[in-house]
């Protein structure tokens, strides 16, 4: 039964998301949206060297996307580029602790996509 | 309720979803199909399949006759003056594109195209693009806090409009717009009225002559018909002035390497092999609806909507008019502090299918200051007890998320 | 013959026409459908019907998965690198329109578009229109008296061409053009090659990467699939540069009243509700063809064509190459002093379905100095004994009209 | 059985069409085509007053369209505008003496359409 996607863990993160908010003077900002449902996310990152020093997000979305953003930002804080680059769909699902239908997967993966893009865009700025 | 006897015609409604009996409340996205329609499609492929208009053999003749009969059924359904005015297209979106780009020679720099802020993207983007292409102006009529079109604003803005593009029924607010009134105004100002009938033609009697509509777009899949087929109606006189947008085989009379002469109406606008089975299936859907009677279909929508406004209205914020008579058969709503996706996901656990999101009406949602909504939409096969099930489930969701 | 066992899958072939068993020799116009395809369509409407990409409920998920699986099947069938390169359209004609008008920002004044004099109107008119719109030049490669493309003329004309639009198989001459060779030349000159695959993709293995094709158009209805569905393949890099031609809901990421941002590939080119059942049906047709093997399908075509060239060639003038290996599975022909319509009409009396006319290739017919031709076309369900019946009937016609 | 559309009468007109050819200095010429099959017809008319004095046709098409053109031109010669205007599908079928499927009907009716248009176009020239 998929009702179990609304686990205590998910609901807890949804109701009290970690890292929700803005960073003043971030090194990079990245926004993305899920056009099919209107979910939006904006990721703010501050780096120290190759490490993610601070990360926050704003936006709105369903419980899954909000909980996912909360958990992923928590997970990558203090980690380096390589770590973020290697994060996969399965890592997100492991964090969330649930199984998802393809449609719902998009909700869960939007934050990961945004975090990766934020990191990549900083990386490409660096190399210029 | 008097529609009860039709439910058995829809095989999918016997399905279970997550162990529960399916409650399908997403007909505004696409309707379910009665076996009478499915059977006609199967029969076509099994017994009569051939290309049309092109060959003298018996199968081709049978297919051509069936296809052109479907066109007659569509013409009769909306009371068009002639079958020449019925263009088969893919869907409402394509019809509205053919309407807008078909008028490209008529729209000049600085001309005004007037539409509304309650349109589906399909009745917005083609006009945005046409305006961009021709350096024309795009202007909007707003809706008021009850979801009604602001007719005073319309009066102010309509006089110098060249084209007025408006939906007959909003797919979010449910609002049914006073098309006849607006059409009369366009007749005075000499503008062309293009009506998005995606949510109206399937649900109420629509008579293009009585309403004085110049162009009307609608989709087969929302009115018990198959996917991939839709209709652009336009007055013959307009179609003659309009340019085809896409080009190819059947729409041509004579071709040389450097020159092409368009075919007669309606073929001028139909390119390549048509969706023959789709048109025939749409014809069967129209037969089915006609046999029930569109007034009865409309009446049923009103009853369900009134019931839903009342019951769901007690626990949710519903957008649009308060009076069921002014609405089509749907309600878009929100529960406090619960994202519509989560509503839809939990409802699905109970076998209830609704839609959540912006329903391809982002500007409308922005105006309502929400990013998304949940929407339950009804058709002739829905019942009040299904709305009771919806309400029960919504109450449960409120509990889970409290 | 080894295809015999598949005939029983096609229910329509059991039909009688004018008291005779149907002999269907008009597959180049549209193919018949095996029950495996019909069943998938019926099953969709009966058990899974919903709109796609838009809702979270189970039916919508099932429909979306089935639709996207069909896209994967198409991608695998022509060996596209990614499903992002597969756009579902109405038919070949629409695909070629999206190809031509999609390139409108790339084609400049005085640019040259090169095509051939053996094209179907669908691969001619869109380029005529694009050339007119952009004041570009349209030039043509001729075919020789045996129906082969004049490769010397092509060599002379290809160097400064921006776009080369060519059919892989002629629907009248039957000629199979050397697409790989032509594609290699376009790679040297930096031009884009657009291939009309309407008559090739259903009948032979087509590998877009191996052939180095930039864009490929084909129709579902000619390859055992339903009507109303077709495919535009284009390399991702090209699709990214191309502009959408029609505009609407699913192809949009963000919209405001004055601005729209296109969605990711392939959705950027799919507007409004897709022909969901059509795509799924096409997927089933591809499964069917793949299971037989396209090499075997091709081999069967060659055998039947060789037989027909020999037998029908004795009493009729057949156009195009003499070698069956260089031809697709069809023959267009004329009997001396008998109009093709009359041939078709009398054949129909014997239950034999062929096509007569210009087959949407007027310039080709002009080049051949004829106004029309009769065409018999084959597919995997046809047999040599059906060609014998055709020959017997043609002999009778010669008698009636002598 | 529709094979009977190739009656002796039809075949006779097809093989030896009446009024086939051009008129030098006609009062009006009208061309039409059946785009679906490539049949083409060109009608030449000379009037005396309101009467069709001379009428000929050129073009090509199937036995049905050629026989129909032959019979119709024969039928309207010496008749006036009113007579031509009132000619119907049924009149053509009566002349041909056969029944036709909708598709084949187009072949048979193309000459009638062309003759009518030729007459109308002359009429409208006259009224200017
Ligand atoms: C070579 C060729 N190109 C294009 C087409 C057009 O296909 P469709 O009518 O499916 O668009 C055809 C079929 O009629 C064809 O034979
Ligand atoms: C008001 C309105 N207009 C247009 C459309 C687009 O219809 P389609 O997707 O069939 O093109 C819809 C349906 O989604 C609609 O509700």
Chain-wise SSE layout:
The complex is a heterotetramer, with two copies of chain A (128 residues) and two copies of chain B (402 residues).
Chain A (H helix, E strand, L loop, with lengths): L7 H8 L12 E7 L4 E10 L2 E10 L2 H14 L4 H5 L3 H8 L5 H26 L1
Antiparallel strand pairs in A: 1-2, 2-3
Helix pairs in contact in A: 1-2, 2-5
Chain B lengths: L15 E2 L2 E2 L1 E2 L10 H14 L9 H20 L8 E4 L2 H11 L9 E5 L8 H10 L2 E5 L9 H8 L2 E7 L11 H11 L2 E5 L11 H4 L3 E5 L10 E5 L1 H6 L10 E4 L4 E3 L13 H17 L1 H20 L3 E2 L11 E5 L5 H10 L2 E2 L1 E3 L4 H6 L5 E5 L6 H17 L2
Parallel strand pairs in B: 3-15, 5-6, 5-7, 7-8, 8-9
Antiparallel strand pairs in B: 1-2, 4-10, 9-10, 11-12, 13-14, 14-17, 16-17
The complex binds pyridoxal-5'-phosphate (PLP) (2 copies).
Any overview of this molecule?
The complex is a heterotetramer, with 2 copies of chain A (128 residues) and 2 copies of chain B (402 residues). Chain A is α+β, with helices and mostly antiparallel strands. In chain A, helix 1 packs across helix 2 and helix 2 runs parallel beside helix 5. The mean pLDDT of chain A is 90. Chain A has a 3-stranded antiparallel beta sheet with strand order 1-2-3, covered by helices on one side. In chain A, 44% of the residues are buried. In chain A, a hairpin with a 4-residue loop joins strand 1 and strand 2. Chain A has one domain: Sufe protein. Chain: A (Alpha-Beta Complex). Chain A contains 5 helices and 3 strands, in the order H-E-E-E-H-H-H-H. Chain A is 48% helix and 21% strand. In chain B, a hairpin with a 2-residue loop joins strand 1 and strand 2. Chain B has a 7-stranded mixed beta sheet with strand order 4-10-9-8-7-5-6, with helices on both faces. In chain B, helix 1 runs antiparallel to helix 9. Chain B has 2 domains: 136 residues, Aspartate Aminotransferase, domain 1 (Alpha-Beta Complex), CATH 3.90.1150.10; 254 residues, Aspartate Aminotransferase, domain 2 (3-Layer(aba) Sandwich). The mean pLDDT of chain B is 96. The longest helix of chain B has 20 residues. Chain B is of the alpha/beta class. Chain B is built from 13 helices and 17 strands. Chain B is globular, with a radius of gyration of 22 Å. Chains in contact: A-B, A-C, B-C, B-D, C-D. Chains B and C meet through helix 1, helix 2, helix 3, helix 4 and strand 11 of B and helix 1, helix 2, helix 3, helix 4 and strand 11 of C. Bound molecules: pyridoxal-5'-phosphate (2 copies). One pyridoxal-5'-phosphate sits at the interface of chains B and C.
